[in-house]
Automatic annotation (TrEMBL):
Cross-referenced Gene3D superfamilies: Aldolase class I (3.20.20.70)
Catalysed reaction equations from the record: L-lysine = D-beta-lysine
Domain of life where this protein originates: Bacteria
The protein's name in its UniProt record: L-lysine 2,3-aminomutase
Length: 338
């Protein structure tokens, strides 16, 4: 662990915090930016109130102007379909409240613990299984941070700490550094994992300071990104993902299979090829969690399995993500046969 403090953030050309602050929060502004009329889409005011629209500009820049069916737009647009009651779609489909045994901690996977390091995200994905999660109860005070770290310290079966959220990269680099140092000081922890969508929606979040911090860690570090469509990755940002990779961070991706967004063989194969070119290994392809307000994204399991089978016929094995479903109460994801 290097003790040299680095101040390279000051020279980042466009600070991620400024980009975050400049995000779209009004559907009308986003639509105007995309040369769309409200009549082109099925916007819902109610859905906006239930779960606000939040879209950073770098992500909006990768949407196709004038296309109401753009696969990135469809992931973030509050639509009327969200307000329909659909049987089986509930607020806590994974029963996480039960695994949330202590504030800020979810311990349901063997040897791994989730540390809910930040309560917010840089983007609000409409299908998110945490859209109804009581984040406000999990915003940690300094004392609660210590209690969460004590929990990890006191259980030597925990080998891996997964920073989750919300999005853990919402934390400033200085704060992350302190957290990392405390985790590194726990001898039985060997691996650190960061689950984040921030490097995708604001690639400037991959700061030089972040890369140095992770490169210097004694822990084996991985970062599980969340990318659903090849258009989410722009060639202009390739160097940032490479920088993260060159810092020794293993980059993995989890995607969610979403109707109209990526439910075709063409979209899925392009996604997995594009990921690899960015140094990211396809890891999971999730079936949608039955979360209230997300039924319009559902792809039936039979279709999912068929798509997965077709992918196997055209891509090398290492570009095939595992097709999985998360089931409440289970200690691992359920692998689906193709
Ligand atoms: C599945 C999952 C995990 C555990 O992941 P593994 O890769 O199976 O160890 C951790 N956090 C979240 C949010 C997950 O969805
Ligand atoms: S970034 Fe992840 S946690 Fe945040 S809203 Fe999107 S899917 Fe949910």
């Amino acid at each position: 662990m290097s003790i040299i403090t680095r101040t390279s953030d000051a020279v980042e050309p466009q600070d991620w915090r400024q980009l975050l602050a400049g995000s779209f929060r009004q559907a009308s502004e986003l639509l105007h930016y995309l040369n769309l009329q409200p009549a082109d889409v099925e916007l819902s005011e109610q859905a906006c109130r239930d779960f606000p629209l939040l879209v950073p500009r770098p992500f909006a820049d990768r949407m196709q102007k004038g296309n109401p069916q753009d696969p990135l737009l469809l992931q973030v647009l509050p639509q009327q379909a969200e307000t329909l009651e659909v049987t089986g779609y509930i607020t806590d489909p994974l029963a996480e409240k039960h695994a949330n045994i202590q504030q800020g901690i979810i311990h349901k996977y063997h040897g791994r613990v989730l540390l809910l390091a930040a309560s917010g995200c840089a983007v609000n994905c409409r299908y998110c299984f945490r859209r109804h999660f009581p984040y406000q109860d999990n915003r940690l005070s300094r004392k609660q941070w210590q209690q969460a770290l004590d929990y990890i310290r006191n259980d030597n079966s925990i080998e891996e700490v997964i920073l989750s959220g919300g999005d853990p990269l919402m934390l400033q680099d200085e704060h992350l550094q302190q957290l990392l140092q405390q985790i590194e000081a726990i001898p039985h922890v060997r691996r650190l994992r960061i689950h984040s969508r921030l490097p995708v929606v604001i690639p400037q979040r991959i700061t030089t300071a972040l890369c140095h911090m992770l490169a210097d860690s004694r822990l084996a570090v991985s970062c599980v990104l969340h990318i659903n469509h090849a258009n989410e990755l722009s060639e202009n940002d390739l160097f940032r993902f490479k920088q993260l990779q060159h810092s020794g961070v293993v980059l993995l991706n989890q995607a969610v299979l979403l109707k109209q967004v990526n439910d075709s063989l063409r979209d899925l194969s392009e996604l997995n090829k594009q990921l690899f070119e960015f140094g990211i290994v396809p890891y999971y392809l999730h079936l949608l969690d039955p979360v209230k307000g997300a039924a319009h994204y559902d792809v039936p399991e039979s279709q999912a399995r068929h798509l997965h089978q077709q992918l196997q016929q055209i891509l090398p094995g290492y570009l095939i993500p595992r097709l999985v479903r998360e089931e409440g109460g289970k200690r691992h994801k359920t692998l689906l046969p193709s």
